[in-house]
């Protein structure tokens, strides 16, 4: 099943527990995040825009977590978050944000479950996903 506006990742994965939606405009970053998460056994869907991700989320079963780049072209990440909060089924969807912005030590976006600094290290990514999406995964890769 293809997903309009998506990069083809997760085309054979049905969104459910253990599925992570990556919203990231940089293709190389999306590829790297997808690789790390799939190797850890998670299903992955990926979108290059908040607009496409929101359109998808409004018609699909929510994933376990959204991994969201804070600096997105088009719809800003904060507006994306506010629109999710207006939808009862999406209001509590865990958001983990990623940013390349220089932030004060220990700063976290108050509406996000976790804030990851770019470049995102695999260990920090997996820890945030395990903590906020639970341990539910597809089968781990060998």
Number of helices: 4
Shape: globular
Number of strands: 5
Report the β-strand fraction as a percent range. 15-25%
**Pairing-aware structural class of the strands and helices?**
alpha/beta
Radius of gyration: 14 Å
Helix-strand string: EHEHEHEEH
In this structure, how is the largest beta sheet organized? Answer: 5 strands, parallel
- Stretches where pLDDT is under 50 for at least 5 consecutive residues are 1-17
In round numbers, the mean pLDDT is 85
What is the strand arrangement across the widest sheet? Answer: 2-1-3-4-5
Helix and strand arrangement:
Elements: E1 19-23, H1 27-39, E2 43-47, H2 50-57, E3 65-69, H3 77-85, E4 95-99, E5 114-117, H4 122-133
Parallel strand pairs: 1-2, 1-3, 3-4, 4-5
Explain what this protein looks like in three dimensions.
The modification 4-aspartylphosphate is found at residue 69. InterPro entries: Bact_response_regulator (IPR050595), CheY-like_superfamily (IPR011006), Sig_transdc_resp-reg_receiver (IPR001789). The chain is of the alpha/beta class. The protein has 4 helices and 5 strands. The protein has helices at 27-39, 50-57, 77-85, 122-133, and strands at residues 19-23, 43-47, 65-69, 95-99, 114-117. The protein has a 5-stranded parallel sheet with strand order 2-1-3-4-5. Helix 1 (27-39) links the parallel strand 1 (19-23) and strand 2. It is globular and about 30 Å long. The two termini are 25 Å apart.
